[in-house]
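COURSE: Structural Biology Practicum
ASSIGNMENT: Worksheet 4, Part C
STUDENT ID: 0417
INSTRUCTIONS: Below are two proteins. For each, the amino acid sequence is given first, followed by its structure token string. Answer the questions at the end about the second protein only.

PROTEIN I
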Amino acid sequence: MNEKYLEAGKIVSTHGIKGEVKVLPWADSPDFLTRFKTFYLVGSDAHIAPVIAAGNDAAAARRQEASGDASLRNTALAVEASRVQKSCVLIKFRGIDTVEDAQKLRDRVISIARDDPKIPAGTVFQADLIGMPVFADGAEIGKITEILSMPASDVWVVKGEKTYMIPNVKAFVPAIDLSLGYVNVNLIEGMETDGE
């Protein structure tokens, strides 16, 4: 399903005293998140809006909070600066200037807009693959229920009558074409995790 916003990571802690936050990225590499100048708190809680309003559009935040319309509760966070620190990304959002303000964002999931021009054409997101039917030798073997990030490659957990663990590499997943609405894979012995 093509959602307007895609979850990109989780704010796991604050960093320093000037309002920076540490984000655990849900991407192939933390560098990917440094490309973006805007993130979103999708369905953001009302108590977050006043904090964001200080550095972003205060009038829009008040309208958003007053409307009660859940579709309007997507708070944009403008990025002042971002940098990679080990496996995380440190981000300074406009208007979040103290550790107390940054603390209010802790444990929040940040999202990116699918139509952001910083996303390369042909990019496939995990959110698009979850629930996708998987075929092997012309027969459906199940749907992708989970994607595990492993050191060598992502591994798809495919559940149907049996459960399979399929590495997302060219040898087993020759191509991903989301327009088809399914994925073809090449199975080998050992991918099935259930006994017969």
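PROTEIN II
(use this one for the questions)
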Amino acid sequence: MDGVVSFVWYNLVIGIIVAIELCYFLYLETSVTAYRQFVLTTVGGLVLAVVGGPITELMAPSLVHFVHGIAALLVILGLYNPVTNDLRSAEWSQVLLSEPSQVRHPAEWMTPMDDEILNVFYNTNLVLTPSIIAFNIGFSQKEVNRRLTELEAHGLAKRVERGKYKLTQHGEQYLCGQLYRSTSRIDEESGIP
């Protein structure tokens, strides 16, 4: 029984450390203020699970499952809006990921230069030539031409006319992290090779 109690104390210490880290995150992350209500609800559920669970297990072991159930409910309400029946994925991506490239799923054929090329299209919303793209991202026109051909072949960029390209809808979805190109099943559904 002594081993169980020491394990509970270990869980409590780890829970307190995680709670401190979450509070530190909430204090420093400026984008959290716009979504404070659901972030605090989710964090409250996490803190209740990692701190309240071990405390309850020490004080009233029969209530542990009740505390974990309440914690899970808080996390769910923080992540999911039952009124609009919608996951708060856009809000969480704003809070947790300031750089969209962290949610992208590049295909095996893609290079880091592809992201830079697609970003130039996305940021300007213009039809561009390879030389203008090359100038803006610091690569040679020959390299950009080669990558544009590959991006066009996979449906992320489109040649408007000779030497002029634009971003496609699939390219925009990829940049926003909404196009999962790593699985062949989804590639078949989207119609992209």
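ANSWER KEY EXCERPT:
Q1: The first strand starts at residue 80 and ends at 81.
Q2: Strands lie at 80-81, 86-87, 157-161, 164-167.
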